[in-house]
């Protein structure tokens, strides 16, 4: 139990070497099955703010964000997207909207999986949805092709 008397939701591992971490090599945990237990994460999130002179007389929170990412580390032996059938590789000097470089750029709008979303606007800020790989079929980029930008 913790100092308030509640059961702990974790255990403290005093020894856990990179080459032989505990559950796998511990004789105490070899027979223990994790399949019948739920994995729980307590996420504490807060704003990161570095004070600066522009904070006086008030601190603006525009542009601050908070969040977390759940990513599997060492779950796969390699990047699972390596075998993706729709992979496109091009260099920075190549035109991503060219049919010769990007075969998906020449697909009609109907064949694309990406939705055609309207421009987003909230509180005076706006941003257009950007989709790569959409073209007009003639080898030139169509609406929505680009590397980003602000809305009207």
Automatic annotation (TrEMBL):
<dbReference type="GO" id="GO:0005769">
    <property type="term" value="C:early endosome"/>
</dbReference>
<dbReference type="InterPro" id="IPR015798">
    <property type="entry name" value="Cu_amine_oxidase_C"/>
</dbReference>
<dbReference type="GO" id="GO:0005507">
    <property type="term" value="F:copper ion binding"/>
</dbReference>
<dbReference type="GO" id="GO:0005794">
    <property type="term" value="C:Golgi apparatus"/>
</dbReference>
<protein>
    <recommendedName>
        <fullName>Amine oxidase</fullName>
        <ecNumber>1.4.3.-</ecNumber>
    </recommendedName>
</protein>
<dbReference type="InterPro" id="IPR049947">
    <property type="entry name" value="Cu_Am_Ox_Cu-bd"/>
</dbReference>
<keyword id="KW-0186">Copper</keyword>
<dbReference type="InterPro" id="IPR036460">
    <property type="entry name" value="Cu_amine_oxidase_C_sf"/>
</dbReference>
<keyword id="KW-0479">Metal-binding</keyword>
<keyword id="KW-0560">Oxidoreductase</keyword>
<keyword id="KW-0106">Calcium</keyword>
<dbReference type="GO" id="GO:0046677">
    <property type="term" value="P:response to antibiotic"/>
</dbReference>
<dbReference type="Pfam" id="PF01179">
    <property type="entry name" value="Cu_amine_oxid"/>
</dbReference>
<keyword id="KW-0801">TPQ</keyword>
<dbReference type="GO" id="GO:0005783">
    <property type="term" value="C:endoplasmic reticulum"/>
</dbReference>
<feature type="domain" description="Copper amine oxidase catalytic">
    <location>
        <begin position="38"/>
        <end position="82"/>
    </location>
</feature>
<dbReference type="GO" id="GO:0009308">
    <property type="term" value="P:amine metabolic process"/>
</dbReference>
<dbReference type="GO" id="GO:0048038">
    <property type="term" value="F:quinone binding"/>
</dbReference>
<dbReference type="GO" id="GO:0008131">
    <property type="term" value="F:primary methylamine oxidase activity"/>
</dbReference>
<dbReference type="InterPro" id="IPR000269">
    <property type="entry name" value="Cu_amine_oxidase"/>
</dbReference>
<keyword id="KW-1015">Disulfide bond</keyword>
<comment type="similarity">
    <text>Belongs to the copper/topaquinone oxidase family.</text>
</comment>
<keyword id="KW-0325">Glycoprotein</keyword>
<dbReference type="GO" id="GO:0005886">
    <property type="term" value="C:plasma membrane"/>
</dbReference>
